Structure formats: C-alpha cells, structure tokens
Amino acid sequence: MKIPTNMTMAYHDGDIDTNTSANPHLNDLIAVRYSRRQTLMGGLSAATAAVFGGMLLAGCDEDDPRRAVTVQAGASGATSAGKTVTLTGTVASGSATGVAWAQTGGPAVTLANANTATATFTAPSVAADTTLTFTFTGTSTDGIRSETSTSVTVSPARLDFTAVPKSLADVVAVPAGYSLTVLYRLGDPIASGVGAYANDGSDTNFARRAGDHHDGMSYFGLAATGSTPDANGNTRGLLVLNHENITQAYLHPNGATSIGGAIGAGGVRPESEALKEMECHGVSVIEISRSATAWSYVPASALNRRITPLTPMSFSGPVRGNALLRTRYSTDGTAGRGTINNCANGTMPWHTYLTNEENWAGYFRRQFGDVAARGGSTAKQNVSLARYGIRETANATTFNGNYGWASVVPADAANTLYARWNVTTTAATDATGDFRNEAFQYGWVVEIDPFDPASTPRKRTALGRMNHEGCEIGRAIAGVKPAFYMGDDAQNEYIYKFVSATPWSAADATATNRLAIGDKYLDAGTLYVAKLNADGSGQWLPLVFGQGPLTSANTTYPFADQADVLINARLAGDVLGATKMDRPEWTAVNPATGEMYCTLTNNSSRTAANVDASNPRAYTDPKTTGGQTTGNANGHVIRLRETGDTSEATAFTWDIYAFGAGSDLDATNINLSGLDATNDFSSPDGLWFGLPSNPTGNVTPVMWIETDDGAYTDVTNCMLLAAIPGRVGDGGTRAVTSTLGGTSNTVTTRIGKAPATTLRRFLVGPKECEITGIHSTPDGRSLFVNIQHPGENGGPTNITSSWPANQAGAVATPSRPRSSTIVITKNDGGIIGL
C-alpha cells in the first residue's frame, strides 16, 4: 500500500514496531550463529553425507579460521575374513581437535587406533558376504562435529598365498610374503650356566638342553609378568613340545659305540651315551617372547623345564595302584619314572598339556624264557605283552631294546635307571622285586602343568593304554560332557574317544589348580572304540567291563575288571569288533562344527583282499628313483560327524576328506581327490585346526596337514598344507578298485568334495625330515612348526643335511643337522594363511 504524502496516519503496515518482547532479533541470531560456527552444514551432516560422496561442506565464510572441519572416509571396499583392513579418514578442510572411527553396522569388530585418522581391524569370519559400516567423525576447535560414513564388505575366509612348489632342497621354503625364524634347536641351553651347544657330539647335560626330534607342540599365553596364564597373550608365552626320539649317530662324537655288532644286539652300552640318549627324549617347556621385530626363547627363564624318561610321574584314574603297575621302583603301583616316545599332544582349555606315549614298546628287552616264567603262551600277561609287540627274543639272540639301554652296567650298583628297560621275569618272588611290569607303566596319556615347574606329571589311565599318537579335546560346551579323540598309531589299529563323566564348566578354564581340573575331567568317564560301517554310519563301542564280551568269561582274553580293560584297550577293541584302520595318527576337531578329523598315515599291510569302505585303497606306488611302495602307500584323512553334533553321542557318520597321492597317479582308483601340483601330498601325519580366538578357527576354519613320508620323497621333501575343509557328506560315493599282487577287489567308499583350491601347500622342509608339531599364538599371526630329524639317514662322516645352519645361506663346511622349532610370520603382520 502506498501512503499519500499529505496523509497523516498513526499506524500502517511495516512502519510501526509494536513487539516489545525480549525475543532476539534475526540479526542477533545470525551474529550468534556465526560466532559459534554452527553452520547449516554442521546440523545436516548425517543427512547430506551420502549426497556429497562422503565429504561434508565447509561453512560459507572460508576466511574465518574458526570454521567447521570437513572430513572424508574414502570409498567403500571389499575384503575376506582374516584380512587386516585399514580405514583412512582425512580432514579435507578446517582444523580438527580430534577425529574418531566408530562401527555402526555388521558383526562387531575391534578397532585399533580408533581415535586417529587411520584405524585398523581384522575382518571377522562370515559364512556369506557381509557388509560392515563405519563412521568417521571430525571435531572442530569449538566442538562442532562433522561425520561421514563408509562400508567394507567381507567375504568368507580363503587361502591367500601362492602354493609352495615341491622341493628336494635342504632348506625350509615358505610362501612369498612370509618369513621364518629358527627358534629352538636340539641342544639349546635352557638354564643358567649351561654352555652353548657345540654340535660335535661332545655335549652333555641334556636335562637342561633342548631334546631331539621335536614333535607335538602347544603354545600357552603368559601374562606380561609372572607365571599366570593369559589366554590372549600374543607376545609372551610358554612353548611346550615333545621330543619323540633321537638321531643317535649325531649325538656322539663318532656315532654310538658298537657293542658286538648292531646297536642293542649284545654287549654293554656306555652309561654316558645311554644317559644322554634318554635325556634327549621327553618334553620341553620353554618361555618365549616377541620383541618388536622377532621371537626368541628365554634361556634362563625360571619356567623352563625338561621332562624326560627319568622324571618322576604319578598315576591317576582307574588303574592307579593296580597290581600290573607294581615294580621294584613303585611297589604300590602309584608312581613311575618318565615318559618316552612322545608323539602328538593335546591342549586343554584349563591350560595344561597332554603328551602321549606312542612307540614305547620297542625300548624294552625281554629275554628268552620269559614266556614260560609267566605261565606259557596262553597266560594273560603273555597275551597282553604280545598284543602290544613285546615278544621275547629267540634262544640264540639278545635284544636289549631300542638303543640297548637295558645293557648298561651303571657305576652305581643301586641305580635302576637302566635295569628297568629289561622286563624279563627274574627269580624274585613277585613283581616288586624286578621290572617285569615296567612295560605296563607306558602307553598312557600324560598331563603336564607347564606353569608349575615343580608339579609332577600325571598319567591319565582312564584314557586307555595304546600307542597314543595324540589326544585332542572336542569343543568345550558348558553343560556337555567333553570328548577326547585319540588314534592308536600302528598298522590296523583303532580310533578311540574318551567321554568325561563330568559336564564342562567354563569357570574351570581359569582355575589355578590346573591338575586338579584334569582330575575332574580325565579320571572318570567312558572310553570308546570306533566301528565304521560300509554305509557311512558308525558306532562308538564302550570299553566297559561287564558289558558285552568284556567279562572274565571271554575266551580270547578273560578281563578281570575295568583296570584290565584299560590296560589292554587293544584287546578290548579286538573282541568288540572295532574297525582296523591304516595307522590312525593325529586327531583334530573342527572348532566351528565339532567334526573330528583323523590322519591315516599309510599301511603297507593293506591288501586288495582286505580293503573296506573306510580304508578302500591297496595299490603300487612306483618311485622315480627305483623301487616301489605298496598297500595304502600315501594314506588318507578321514572325518566323523557325531550324531546330533554332540560329543556325548554314541553314533556318527563318516567320509574321507582327502586321499594322499601324487598328482600323476590313477585318478579313478588312487588320486581320488583330484590333487594337482599345488596340493598333492603323501602320508598325512600331523593335523591341527586354527584357534577360535582368531578367524582361522571360526565359521570356516583352517586345517593344517603335516606329512611324514617315505613313498613320495623321491619327488619332494615332507610338507605342511593348509586347507579349508567342508563337512561330512559334502561329496558322494565312489566305487574304488584295488589291484595288488594279482588280486582285484572293488569297494564303495564315501569321499568328500574335491579340495581343489581349498587345499594348498604352505611349506616344504629340508632333506630327510618330517614336518610335525604345530600351534599358533591366539591372534593367529605367529605359527610354530617343528622340523624333525633332518638328515636322519646320515652320520658324523656322512652328513646328509646341514639344516638349520644353512637356512640363512649355504655353509662352507657341513654342519650336523638339528631338529628345531621354527616360527613363521607374515611380512605385513597379518594372520597366517589368510
């Protein structure tokens, strides 16, 4: 409205201020708004982030130093489980007093350095492609926040390394992008005052040095100080490992002293040599630590310990105090001396270590006439000793056991360390006057508390007596009785499991009296033996006195009681009709599914006439260097799924995960898994799954396979392979024809899905070695592996391997080889294998 110039008015639109309230003027609001830099974009940042591609706009006054920050989070990305992911945010403009990353979606991960521009996390295990979302925030000097988002899509775990080629070289080869350190070697000192290892046969005092033939192994995390277990300890820990056997020739200056021909055939062994050899057997407990750059062992740690065939032991469980354990050393049958030929292992959730006595029977001398002294060939003790391979010698020969220790005449006449290896019955009136029962003291699972050097190891008799290869616990689930899976390593022996009488309680994982927890779970329960049927089903047959044929009326072997059944687990398996397997060795349990895997290393006595569904191959494997191996020369890996996926089940289904074979062998009847140059293998032995504390043990866990081969060593040294296996039943049935010695036989077996790229060679060892023993830190970023008996076919004047001296480069003069533990890390610090 236009006001005429000659008109006088008291009120008109827009010219009179009638608002006398204290509310602020718009100009005041603008001034305050900009003085605090609460820009329009600051309030709308979350809504506009997607529109502006992850970048937030600055305030309009570009010359004001107090303006809000703008941040960028980068483009979305993709990765696979176990990979290290780096989130990189930037401050595009402005001055930030702080930045931070936060997860806003997907499976929870732990962000390292979350309050910096560059945060990292480990991609979690997933079953299918899964998206994780993250927000990056910048805060200005006056507290204004700007945000932007990004996402990462994670796919299931996959093996991500280039397969190592087969090799006959005298070094350990690992994939590109990985490094190894030789950590702990035969003869390394583990106590103050013990000199460096000369490695010329002159060294002594192996009770305070590393033993020989490094084998099964476990890593236990240690707290930053003291001797307290830390289940998440990745830089300080205890490494516990078996010393299964010895390469005798390298331990003495000129080899072992001859005693009338072949070692052990007659005469007398020098006490000093025998003592050294005994001390080289057993177990090591050593403290190890990681600095910023490398792992090393702590030579003078108070936690270091050697357990040998001389170390005092106690017996626990149903056989403790039984008459068959009574000897001159332990007249009440509750104690013993030492453990020997320790092969595979077990790692208990209450932080103890199980070591397992395998080929112990060969160490004993049994003179001619002992069968008669014990009551004749049908007497129970003679039946038992023969079933375990302890037979008397012929009248005209003398066998002093492996390495002839029974022949030693000690300087101290009261010393019975050597006499105990002679199990011949003497004129003593009962077993407490000699060592006729000493062999019954071996063949057990032995539990060790690695955190207490003063503790006495316990032989757990409820788990039965056999050639124990390993003892692997299944998944520990609260309220469910845990199972412990075992193989009896000899041709045509059985697979066993022990189910504890006590359901698992998670609180026991942190108990301080660890051996008492072992008492709780390992001293009472039911031992079973496996029967595998042709239709893919199976039963766990209980080894319980009084059930079925396990009675005193049995004509094959009249069992007296439960202790008798456990001492003679093999005989009990025989009468129950268990399935004879091709050398059951290591067992491993998939931590995600609970399925049990068992390596069946090989079986030269398998014939075309006696193949069956679970051991379906008998064939000839020719060697390029001449000669051949027969039977199931390359072995296979079998797996079992418990009914209901519970460790308490008494029935299961089975199939064969993979068949060992050279890739050039017949694909129809021998190379049934379709192996190629990247993954063909022979004689699987060691077996282990990644830990559930990192992605190698979750959802689709990584399984590691180690070999102990003689059939394929003309083509390659022994090896370590990584696998991501499927599940029982993921393949199908296959008719397999075995042809050997003029006989042909066809059986139908159950075979897993062909491994293809989910099985890959990770490591090849030096000459004449076995790859055995494997474990990792909880984070999966350091992998410990044992290299056993390199150059085992040589001697002081014929050194056939110089490993590990030559690992860093060729040596000018041959060096005696040494069994050793190595540790493998990824150059980028990532998780091994993924």
Describe the structure.
- Residues 624-635 have a biased composition (Low complexity).
- It holds the Pfam family PhoX.
- It comes from Sphingomonas aerolata.
- The structure is a single chain.
- With 834 residues, this protein is mainly β.
- The strands form 11 sheets. It has a 9-stranded antiparallel β-sheet with strand order 21-22-24-25-26-33-32-29-28, with no helix packed on it. Strands 16-15-20-19-18-17 form a 6-stranded mixed β-sheet, with helices on one face. Strands 10, 11, 12, 13 and 14 form a 5-stranded antiparallel β-sheet that branches.
- It is globular, with a radius of gyration of 34 Å.
- 52% of the residues are buried.
- It has 9 helices and 42 strands.
- It folds into 2 domains: 38-155, Immunoglobulin-like (Sandwich), CATH 2.60.40; 178-246 and 281-308 and 339-360 and 442-826, TolB, C-terminal domain (Neuraminidase, 6 Propeller).
Distance between the amino and carboxyl termini: 80 Å
Q: What Rg, in angstroms, do the CA atoms define?
A: 34 Å
Structural class: mainly beta
Full CATH superfamily name of the largest domain: TolB, C-terminal domain
Q: Give the low-pLDDT segments.
A: 1-16, 26-66
Helix content: under 10%
State the shape: globular
Name the average pLDDT: 92
CATH topology of the largest domain: Neuraminidase
Corresponding CATH architecture of the largest domain: 6 Propeller
Q: How many strand segments?
A: 42
Major pleated sheet = 9 strands, antiparallel
Q: Total helix count?
A: 9
Indicate how many domains the architecture comprises.
Answer: 2
Beta strand %: 25-35%
Protein name: Phosphatase
